[in-house]
Amino acid sequence: MGFSYTMDDNSKELSSALESAVAAALHECGGEFVAQAERNSRKDTGDTARSFDYAVDGDTVYVGSNAENAIWEEFGTGIHAENGGRSTPWSYKDREGNWHTTNGKRGTRALTKAMQSKAPVAEKIVKSKLGGVS
């Protein structure tokens, strides 16, 4: 009596399904992080809030902003700067040409807080997307 078997190699299909699931999870997580960072931001003009975006590269999602003001909003400026800043007031001209004097502004930590608050949501997203890969 002989024994025979056949083995199907589905590794390519599994790898493809896994890559698709990871990409879908990262895009969904990126969207969650961006939306929360927007909600956490100051809305004086809304420019910084609207500047948040994400990009997926392989198995990594990058979230951030290309707006110059975003780093000042995140970490603060002047006497309020997170790691020390200018201790004397300064003046600046706004878009309308009006002059203002300031000691700085407190950071909102909009992006940091978004990442922290949405981490459990991101974990659920990843588990749900990868749960169907088998």
Description:
The structure is a single chain. This protein has helices spanning 11-40, 47-51, 68-75, 110-131, and strands spanning 52-57, 60-65, 90-93, 99-102. The protein is of the alpha+beta class. The protein has one domain. The protein has a two-stranded antiparallel ribbon. A two-stranded antiparallel sheet has the order 3-4. α1 (11-40) packs antiparallel against α4 (110-131).
Detail the topology: elements first, then pairings.
Layout: H1 11-40, H2 47-51, E1 52-57, E2 60-65, H3 68-75, E3 90-93, E4 99-102, H4 110-131
Antiparallel strand pairs: 1-2, 3-4
Helix pairs in contact: 1-4
Keywords for this entry:
134 residues, alpha+beta, two-stranded antiparallel sheet, 4 helices, 15% strand, rod-shaped
Gist of the model:
The protein is an alpha+beta fold and 134 residues long. The protein contains 4 helices and 4 strands.
